[in-house]
């Protein structure tokens, strides 16, 4: 990747890492289900008016919206409202990667390589370490809710893959039309009209203004700009080149949570984080792609004497 593209990828990592700080700010004022509805409603309305629908089957568009949009943020926002630290949430959400691999194996009959199996087991070990520590020291329920959100993200990934879209930005925008109605219905049923009315009535307070700023960040930088740049990079480079940058999101998320919110991480959670990130990285490797990448930088035996070794070849 050219340096400018690397810098773009790193900018997305920063935007997505800070996302969790914005979520924390918004959840200080808005109840979680209402916040999930608002996040996508803000995108859905202009999308319906201005963006042509992508040429994909409705079942995959709706499935993507239910998984990536509805289930992921229903459980993630619920978990954070119940006490899941923002930094730790950014880490545990990475479990969507091994979940995606496993769902692909079950429903799409994709084969796992040995290194992917090892990666999944390492990531599961890291999640076990974090979950055990949470069980010992705090409520484990927010941790489990975050895992459920990661599973929803994985389900959305499978529907996204099955759509076969050549218009990923449009698909991402149109996916946003799915979550608002079920999330608003759930908010009305669980949080109630009185709590919703109170949240809107208090938007002029300091907490309310911070929540609006957090919501604006989620929509603008977390979704439109961040996802737009990421999709642009994915369209120009192999997925195996771009995707590993997402493993830096928990690093930014946990660092930002420490600097801004004063959230600390135990040694046990830090060890689990290393296992999760390392496992996700191994689980994302395709052996054939790894071998091809390795061959690019092997010495070509046909090189004439005097040629410097280590020159990249095209075989």
UniProtKB/TrEMBL annotation:
<feature type="domain" description="EamA">
    <location>
        <begin position="144"/>
        <end position="282"/>
    </location>
</feature>
<keyword id="KW-0812">Transmembrane</keyword>
<feature type="transmembrane region" description="Helical">
    <location>
        <begin position="171"/>
        <end position="190"/>
    </location>
</feature>
<keyword id="KW-0472">Membrane</keyword>
<feature type="transmembrane region" description="Helical">
    <location>
        <begin position="240"/>
        <end position="261"/>
    </location>
</feature>
<keyword id="KW-1133">Transmembrane helix</keyword>
<comment type="similarity">
    <text>Belongs to the EamA transporter family.</text>
</comment>
<feature type="transmembrane region" description="Helical">
    <location>
        <begin position="7"/>
        <end position="27"/>
    </location>
</feature>
<feature type="domain" description="EamA">
    <location>
        <begin position="6"/>
        <end position="130"/>
    </location>
</feature>
<feature type="transmembrane region" description="Helical">
    <location>
        <begin position="33"/>
        <end position="51"/>
    </location>
</feature>
<dbReference type="Pfam" id="PF00892">
    <property type="entry name" value="EamA"/>
</dbReference>
<feature type="transmembrane region" description="Helical">
    <location>
        <begin position="210"/>
        <end position="233"/>
    </location>
</feature>
<protein>
    <submittedName>
        <fullName>EamA family transporter</fullName>
    </submittedName>
</protein>
<dbReference type="InterPro" id="IPR037185">
    <property type="entry name" value="EmrE-like"/>
</dbReference>
<feature type="transmembrane region" description="Helical">
    <location>
        <begin position="86"/>
        <end position="108"/>
    </location>
</feature>
<feature type="transmembrane region" description="Helical">
    <location>
        <begin position="115"/>
        <end position="135"/>
    </location>
</feature>
<feature type="transmembrane region" description="Helical">
    <location>
        <begin position="58"/>
        <end position="80"/>
    </location>
</feature>
<dbReference type="InterPro" id="IPR000620">
    <property type="entry name" value="EamA_dom"/>
</dbReference>
<feature type="transmembrane region" description="Helical">
    <location>
        <begin position="141"/>
        <end position="159"/>
    </location>
</feature>
<dbReference type="InterPro" id="IPR050638">
    <property type="entry name" value="AA-Vitamin_Transporters"/>
</dbReference>
<feature type="transmembrane region" description="Helical">
    <location>
        <begin position="267"/>
        <end position="287"/>
    </location>
</feature>
